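# nightly structure sweep
# worker-07 picked up a monomer target from the shared queue
# config: single-sequence mode, recycle default, output format = structure tokens
# input follows
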Amino acid sequence: MRSVRARAALGATVVVALALTAAGLAVLLVLRANLTDQAGLQAEVVAREVAGQLALDVPYDRLETRDEEDHPVQVTDEDGRVVAVSKDLRAISGTGTDRVAPDPSPAAGGTADGDDDGDDDDNGTDDDSGSGTPGRGEVDSDEPHFGNGTATVDGDTADYRFASVRATTSTGVTLTVHAGAPLAAEQEAVGTVRGAMLIGLPALLLVVAGVTWLVTRRALRPVEGIRREMAAITASEDLSRRVPEPGSRDEIARLARTTNETLTALEASVERQRRFVADASHELRSPIASLRTQLEVGAAHPELLDVPGAVADTVRLQGLAADLLLLARLDAGERPGRTVLDLGALVREEVSQRTGDRIAVTVSVPDSGPDAGRYEVAGSRGQLARVLGNLLDNAERHARSAVTVSVGAAEGGGVAVAVTDDGAGVPPEERERIFERFVRLDDARARDDGGAGLGLAIARDVAARHGGRLTVDGAREGGARFVLWLPGTG
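# output follows
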């Protein structure tokens, strides 16, 4: 089952079916228990009424019961012999004995004809008791015993709830009264509820499945639109297209917005890659063409070979290839190393190796002394040295008479390296643009003799890879001030 709609509908239907089945069984059990208890209460009332009559020594054949057809009664003695039954009772079960005919043996407390054992005198005085006043029995006050069984009354057999109550006659004979109450109402009610559930449950499950299917289908309709548009974008390779965004604020709307943001980033990345390839091809074409021309002239006229020019073009070509390779690694997500290094020492080392600069670089690194370790950062020594070299190269090209490098603790933590020159500076509107690849300002093109516009782009990318940032603003001397901020190790 590959459809989300079908799985959702099936899952909801199964959950509702289980819940309704459990609830239905609980309702049936509670209903049956309540109705059975009601029948038991009715049976107990009848049994106690008969037991009260026995306690008053009412003869067995004169016992009165309410609704004999609905409440069959059976009376047994201590030996289990049947001494009395209700009218028209033809069969019984569930009371301990299935006999329905009174036992002909004499039993204490009364006879079948309503007389005593024949020893009473005319005044109703029992010779054995020696008392002139008849005695009085009692009804057992303990909870009666209940049980289910069947009885046949006047040819109709039905299920009954029986209650058993003990009674003691005035002569001390203990009798047990078994009285029943019909369970037909309980069975009819339970059957009606069960039938309604058997009919209503499938119908309700169909409604749940249908509603779930429709709701899920409506909810997933935007997803299908997103899928179709993504398939069209893949087929056409047109990254300028966007998926439709629903007006809701749910997860699907956020998915559509995230998809469009991804497409925007992908389009920008592809466009940047295209520009990168085009600009790299253009930048590589010039030194390669110049070098080829010089070699061809040298091959035809050795005396005209410009060796210094060929070497310069080769060096420029080598530097450009190195820049392109570093940018490719950065774009591929290469992470810098985590070597801990002293940024102040790195600045001094890099400046000391720059022997061919036209302007001497002034270094300002406060003595570590008590602040030892304050300028330590974690990262790639080679990449950070490349950043410093690119910033110093840029300052040397644009400075008039002074280039300064300073290292210090930044406000809020971290280490800051500032490279300042006294050149013309960078116009505020161009301060972000100069960090784009292959971008050179017009003034820079006039004095730049070899820069490809990759140095600052590489410097910012490396700074970002190290968790830092590279910014530019105006210097007090009127030139540009580049600030490299890197997080410290403390």
